[in-house]
Amino acid sequence: MELTARLERMLKAYSHYYDIEQDSALCHGFAATAIYHLRDENYILNKANTVYATEQHEYVYFAVAEHVDKAQAQHWIDQSRTQGLKLIHPHKEHMFSYVTLMVIANTIDADAKKLLKRYTYSKQYRLSLHGWMEYHIAAMEVETMSFLSNPVGKKARQNLRENFASEV
């Protein structure tokens, strides 16, 4: 299966709950982006009497390449983190936002693997009263059919693994 077919499979899996963008200005040099927003609120009688509300967001950036070295991985991390942070607007109803980098590559250098596994970034807004953000990474090396992630990206790695489990 080619890399573009693998990307399409992942986008199809995400398309049920996420808004998918391909080949647009919103992609910022990535193969695709997926955006998820959820707002939950409880109110009494009408919406003017809101008891509480929470918002959850996730911004996923898909990167596809034949080979990934440490410099390329660092570039994708910096680019996706910067673009994701621009989209986060904390306020009293903001619960959390995730920025996720999904890498699909035929081969990944050992140094790049180390970077992808160890990279962490999180941010609290007003001592978490206005929510927080976490940066997730998940990657798939096609040649060895191995999946890796940073410590908080385990769910994203599991999603990759489940979509390609039949090939393992």
What does this molecule look like?
By secondary structure, the protein is α/β, with parallel strands linked by helices. The chain has one domain. 29% of the residues lie in helices and 40% in strands. The protein contains four helices and seven strands, in the order H-E-E-E-H-E-H-E-E-E-H. Strands 1, 2, 3, 4, 5, 6 and 7 form a seven-stranded mixed β-sheet that branches. A hairpin with a 7-residue loop joins strand 5 and strand 6. Helix 2 runs parallel beside helix 3. The longest helix is centred in the middle third of the chain and has 18 residues.
Which key terms come to mind for this protein?
single chain; alpha/beta
Number of helix segments?
4
Question: How many structural units, i.e. domains?
Answer: 1
Total strand segments = 7
Rg for CA atoms: 17 Å
Which of globular, elongated, flat, extended, rod-shaped describes the shape? Answer: globular
Unreliable runs, pLDDT <50, ≥5 residues?
none
Helix coverage percent = 25-40%
The overall pLDDT, averaged over residues, is 93
Structural class: alpha/beta
From the N-terminal CA to the C-terminal CA, the straight-line distance is 13 Å
Topology order in helix (H) and strand (E) letters: HEEEHEHEEEH
Quote the beta fraction: 35-45%
In terms of quaternary structure, what is this? single chain
Largest sheet: 7 strands, mixed
Briefly say what this structure is.
By secondary structure, the chain is α/β, with parallel strands linked by helices.
